[in-house]
Each structure stands twice: as structure tokens, then as C-alpha cells.
Design brief:
By secondary structure, the protein is an alpha+beta fold. The chain has three domains: 7-276, P-loop containing nucleotide triphosphate hydrolases (Rossmann fold); 282-379, Beta Barrel (Elongation Factor Tu (Ef-tu), domain 3), CATH 2.40.30.10; 397-528, Alpha-Beta Plaits (2-Layer Sandwich). The strands form seven sheets. The chain has an eight-stranded antiparallel β-sheet with strand order 27-24-26-25-29-30-28-31. It has a seven-stranded mixed β-sheet with strand order 2-3-1-4-5-11-6, with helices on both faces. The protein has a six-stranded antiparallel β-sheet with strand order 18-17-23-14-15-22. β19 (345-347) and β20 (352-354) form a beta hairpin. α7 packs across α8 (220-236) and α11 packs across α12 (446-459). It is globular, with a radius of gyration of 25 Å. It binds guanosine-5',3'-tetraphosphate. Guanosine-5',3'-tetraphosphate binds next to α2. GTP binds at residues 18-25, 86-90, 140-143. Pfam families: EF-G_D2, GTP_EFTU, RF3_C.
Amino acid sequence: MGDLQTEIQKRRTFAIISHPDAGKTTLTEKLLLYGGAIHLAGSIKSRKTQRHAVSDWMEIEKQRGISVTSSVLQFDYAGCRINILDTPGHQDFSEDTYRTLMAVDSAVMVMDAAKGIEAQTKKLFKVCKQRNIPIFTFVNKLDRYGKAPLDLMTEIEDVLGIRAYPMNWPIGIDGQYHGVYNRIKKQVELFAADDSHGQKERESIILAMDDPELKNKLGEDIYQNLLDDIDLINEAGEEWDDGKVANGELTPMFFGSAMTNFGVRNFLEEYLRLAPAPQAHISTEGEIKPEDKEFSAFVFKIQANMNPAHHDRLAFIRICSGKFERNMQVFHMQGNKNIKLSQPQQFLAQDRQIIDDAYPGDIVGLFDPGIFGIGDTICEGKNRFKFADFPVFPPERFARVEAKDTMKRKQFIKGITQLTQEGAVQLFEQPGTGMESYIVGTVGQLQFDVLEYRLKNEYNVDIVITMQPFEVARWLEFKNGSMVKPENLRGADRGMFVNDMKGRPVLLVNNEWALGWIVDNNPDLLLHNVPPDK
Ligand code: G4P
């Protein structure tokens, strides 16, 4: 393996964000096809039945008979090593998706040309924006009717508040585009006939703008419209600005069709040229640069039962600095101990394999005997630092959850505790109710469905979920440091008094108005919408 700097510069680590159905899975598959990681793309049928799938790629795996059941896909293309992280495409929202975005250096936003920006894209975009990472836009489904390209540009600007820079421009009439104008190479790329139904790579016919053939091929009207469009975007459009692209204020925008393979290669190549290599991360000891010699990483995801037959549990780390080597000794900050990293796994499109080394930007799966938590830091040598805290998302929905069959209590506790450690849900205990039932908090409704499904499938426990009317959770502290108990909290009975799994007192109330009452009547109380740092 080459030196650290060369390896870092090769890496591109990103996630694809989109609303369900925009084409994320299809685009991912096509990137694998162009990357040579698979040889024939299959149409991904019936995947909508996989609403609970942990990863959308599970379906690709089933269809293709290849093992990509993982949270990351890695492949090489044109001298780059590409890591694509999965963001589960649930209709609803989960914290898992947010956290994955903490581990990437850039994001690709896939948009359905007919639908524009949809709800989930907007939410995911917000997280990317907070991190100031570059965002690349792929407007998909150009093979059929959609919104006008200019309207889509305006929509990005109005809805997301960032500017768009079209990298290419569709030629022809909506629904019957002939190809695109490549603004960077200043050439026209016309669709070549494709008889493989998108299973193979697609060729383009490339013509220079001044090629006399071009007018013949397009016809007078379309040719003239193209010239007008080019003038318009050059004159009225935003200027290219590397700095604005780098911090996510200007999004390079590509038009294409993942299903028919149009524009996919062009997108991939431009993306790799423009997307950043691994970036520095903030820690308690200042900035940690990827080229720092000593290895460091953080845990951004924990996944139990990836292989239901083995009940294994993997902690996914994102490498931030130095070189990772199998069997290396590292210090686990949160556990305050040295650990040996044996059996690390990495994921190629073809299979899961034990790896010997990895570099900043790479994602490695470590077998986790239950020691890791989300956001934990591991570092090598004499280094002692923690990476900046992971954002915690305050739960907004709550339910009482108990096992249907009380004989299954042990399994129930084991399952729900493990899924909580994974970060799938947040768990609270109501004092006095023992461990018969828990109060579960989530960010979105679907997390309850996932909880129910996984407890049944992985732990063989049926549960009863009783929704609670609360929407707000606050961690409580008294200014003078004395313990908060229901009896010394005025209005505790206006909501539900619970403890989180670390025993910290939390009050659940119906709404902000109810919270206001508590604040007004308990002047000595401090309220936090995430656990206070202890
Ligand atoms: P997702 O992961 O973002 O949820 O989307 P996915 O790739 O599964 O695509 C959603 C649907 O959109 C699929 O159709 C897919 O074939 C289709 N699609 C993806 N890219 C394009 C495109 O460029 N053009 C057109 N016209 N359609 C596209 P489906 O009906 O759900 O499945 P199937 O019938 O294709 O199997």
C-alpha cells in the first residue's frame, strides 16, 4: 500500500440522500456498474415490500446474489477509492440516517425531476447543511416528463436556500430529451440507442458545439433553443465558486437518468473530480487531520444481528487519521481501556471480508462485544482525545412497550436493551413499574414499526405498543445540584416522570405550553432537550 497522503487523496466518502422512490437504489447500483463492481445491473423489483429492510441494499443483494448487506459499499474507479454509505430510505425518519451523515465528506442529493424537492430530502439536506459539507445534486428520471430544468434550479434555491450550478443541461423537449450539453467540456452528449434496458453501460455520441452535424441531428428549433438556454444559464446563472461548493452553498447540479444510465458516467467522473478527499475532524484536542500519523476513528453506527444466524454485533467506525492495521492496539476513550482490533471487516461490492489495513475516509466494521457506543472515539499511541459530540436528537414520540407474553420478559429486555445501544430507539423507565414495561422515545413513527419487527424477527418477542400523548422530553436538573424527584418537582403529574437508562430524570409533557407551566412554577429548575453532559 502506498503512503498515507496518497491513500487519503484517493478517497471519496459520501452518502446519497433522497426521498423514497427518487432513485437512490438505482443510482447506487449504476455507480457500482460503472465502477466495475458488478457486471450487469438488474432491475430491482418488489423492493417496496422491504419497508423494514435495514438497508436498501439488502434488496440489491437478494436480486444480484451478491453480498452487500452492510452499511457501506466500497469500490475503485479511475484511481479513486469510493465509499458510499447507506442512509436507510424510510418514509419516516430515524436517527440512524442523521448519524451516517456525520461520517461522510460530501453528499449526493437525488431528486425526481417530476417531483422536485420532497420532504425527506429536505430534512436530510438540513443535516448536511449544518455540517457545511459539499452537496451534489443528481436530477433523476430525465427519460420521462418532469419539471422544467430552470424551475428545478429555482426550487433548490427557494426551498433549500442554496444556489445551483448546472453542470449539464438537457437538450430537447421535456420527456423526449436527446441528451445533454456538458457545460464543463462545452460539448453535446447525445443518447445512443440502448438495447440492454439499462443493464449495461450506455454510450453517448459526442459532438462539439460547432460541429455542423449537430444542427442536422437536433433540428433547427431544438438547436436554437439550446443556444438560447446556454446563453441564459451563462448570463443569469451563478458563477462557479470552489469555496461555495466546498461549504455547501453552491450545489453542482447534474441531469440524468439512473434507470437508462444516461448521465451516470458523466456524473461519476465530475463528482470524483470535485468532491473532497477526507477532511479534518474537530476533537477535544483541536483539529485532527487525516494525515496525522497516529490512527484515530469514531463509531457512528452500531448494528446488531446483521447476520441473524450469528447474532453478531458490529460497530462501524469512520477512520479520521493515520493508518488502520488489523490487530492494532488502540485506546478506547469512553471505555478508558486499551483494546485490540481483531477481525475488522470491510465491504467490497462482492463480499464482506477481513481486512488488513485501511485509511482515513474508510469505514470498517468491528465485532463489538457490547463495549462501544455511538460517537465513541478510539485512538492510537499516547493520544487521548474525543471527537466532537454526536448530535443527539430529542425524541418526539413516546410509547409504553411491553412483551405480550410475560414469560418472554428476559428476551424482551435483552432485545430492547441491545436495540437501544444500537441507537435504534431511546429508552426510559417509569419509576415503580419495574422492568415489565419501558417508555420508548423515537424521532419518527416508523421507528416503532422497526422495533416491533426486529424484536419479533431477531428475538422472537411479540410486543404491545401503547402510544403516549407526549411530544416533548426534557432532562431535568436543579440549579443547586439536588436530585430531581417527582415529589420535589411542582407539576410532575402534569406529564410523566421517567428516568433515562443512566438514571437521569426526564419529564415527558404534551406540548411546549405544558412545559411553560413547569418552567414558571419551578424557578430553580434547569431543563435540557438532550441529556446534560455529566
Ligand atoms: P429509492 O431507492 O430512492 O427509493 O428509489 P429506487 O432506485 O428504488 O427507484 C424507485 C423507482 O423509480 C423504481 O421503479 C425505479 O425503477 C424507478 N427509477 C429509478 N431511476 C429511474 C429513471 O431514471 N427513470 C425512470 N423512469 N424510472 C426510474 P419501481 O416501479 O418502484 O420499480 P421497477 O418497476 O423499476 O422495478
